[in-house]
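[job 4471] stage=fold_predict status=RUNNING
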Amino acid sequence: MKLNQKGFGLVEGLLIIIAITLVGFTGFYVYKANEKDKSLENNISTQQTQPDNTQPTPNPVAEDLIDYGKDGVEIKQETDVKKLTGASESFKKYISEEILVLVEDAKQCDGEAGITVNKILNDEFARGGAGSCGGAAQIWKKNNNKWSVVLGFQDIPSCDEEIKREKIPNKIIDECLIEKPNGEYETIKNPN
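[job 4471] inference complete, writing structure tokens
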């Protein structure tokens, strides 16, 4: 019988198996716990940053004003006009026709077409923005049962004669810019 054996005995072998099992289970537990935390973070992040693709509910500020909020309703294709809850069929038709034109224009510059509608007043005026190879904020007006753009601008419109001539109400344009003699601009609240 040889007393100089090489290798592990039964006890040492079991201890090694138990140690490896403990390390494995501990690693698995930590991995699953971190995965669960990431899943919760993603859900919270998605809820906070992803736009809700459901139909927006207009905020009735006054009975004659449909206010879709600061972010408005985004129209990227013709079928998106159904998101314009409370809007007249004539306005939806106009926006449908406009988005088709913008989509075609966007192909010329590899741009992305889009229309945003923020407010509609009395089925006579609307405010939003449109663009494909560039864009601008716009005021739309219904004349003789036809919608058209009556004012285009960046950020805040200028307090010019167009606002008065088109009789754009304060519920649509609640501020505008006027140039002072020194060349600086001043914001005027409720220009009409």
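[job 4471] summary: The first strand starts at residue 59 and ends at 62.
[job 4471] exit 0
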